[in-house]
Amino acid sequence: MRPLPGPKGFTLVEMVIVVAILAILLTMAAPSFNSFFDKYRVKRAAETVSAFLVNAKSEAIKRNKKLNAVVTGSGSTWCIGMTESSTCDCSTGACKVDDVDRAVYSTAFKGVELDEPGTGHVFGFNPQRGTVVGNETVELESANGVEVYVKVGTVGRIRICVPGGGQGYPSC
């Protein structure tokens, strides 16, 4: 006669212990998730601003007209709008090119603040080569101090960098 097989599976006590250990480990990992999402928000904002500036440069060349990217606001309430004039307050419909609203609003990037260049700063893209006057920087920062810069060089080169390097970007 064959002996009866022993019990298989987990007991309720073993399952409760495993769930308790997992809960403790996840609680310890939560702050690192916050840091990850914080870096992601700033990185996404910088990439969006960079793409917007590249678009403004391309549109200036395509239309053979000077186009401006105007920075309005600072802190947590900011926007960057595209216009043919040098003013654009980013209210709905104020930043238009060919009757199309063209702006990046801070509401899409909760927790990301604009440090520089500040209200009323204008990136004027020349239609011949997409150049700008002077070297310009848009500084984006999270509430936890994660900084990412979008730099526009005199020759119109737009790049993203991080002070000290990191996050997949070169050092500024």
Q: Helix count, per DSSP?
A: 1
Mean pLDDT across all amino acids: 85
CATH top level assignment = Alpha Beta
Q: Please count the beta strands (DSSP E, at least 2 residues each).
A: 10
Please give the largest β-sheet: 4 strands, antiparallel
Strand order of the largest sheet: 5-2-1-7
Elements, N to C (H/E): HEEEEEEEEEE
Find the CATH topology.
Answer: minor pseudopilin epsh fold
Strand content: 25-35%
Indicate the structural class: alpha+beta
Radius of gyration: 25 Å
Overall body shape:
elongated
- When the domains are counted, the total is 1
Query: What is the terminal-to-terminal distance?
Result: 78 Å
- Contiguous low-pLDDT stretches (5 residues minimum) are none
Helix residue percentage: 25-40%
CATH H-level homologous superfamily name: minor pseudopilin epsh domain
Keywords: Cell inner membrane, Cell membrane, Membrane, Methylation, Transmembrane, Transmembrane helix
Family: Belongs to the GSP H family.
Transmembrane segments: 12-34
Subcellular location: Cell inner membrane
